[in-house]
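Whether sequence alone determines local backbone shape is best considered at the level of individual chains. When preparing material for the folding task, we compiled for one chain both its residues and its backbone structure tokens. No coordinates are needed to read the tokens, only the vocabulary itself. For completeness, the protein is quoted in full, as a sequence line and a line of structure tokens:
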Amino acid sequence: MTGKTTVVAHLAEGAIDKGFKVFYLKLDEMLLVIKNKDTLKKARATFNKIRNIDLLVLDEFFYLDQSREDLALIYKTLMGINETTSIIIISNREPSDWIAVAEDKYTMQLLIQCAIASSEVVKF
């Protein structure tokens, strides 16, 4: 164990203490929200909450391989909130490993470029 989630939890607590709105999700949970936001009231409410926060913490990011369709949904969602929301991504894989296992390498490369363009990468 490296304590990635614990360190990020402390960062998120600090943001909350300063009055920022923070939301934590695992990637598979976020995918369920995205896929069901048009049909399930709870998913829609969660999706709207995600769109109106200051900091999104995404855990277990690409721990499992994602389908081409799921990757497109993740990309579209993150790019839609990236201008107004800070995002912390927790992963046990290097971004180069994300590309290696991605079915859609082009979209994955775009996602990685956008995710780390103005980011600070911390490795444990």
Q: What stands out?
A: The two ends are 10 Å apart (CA to CA).
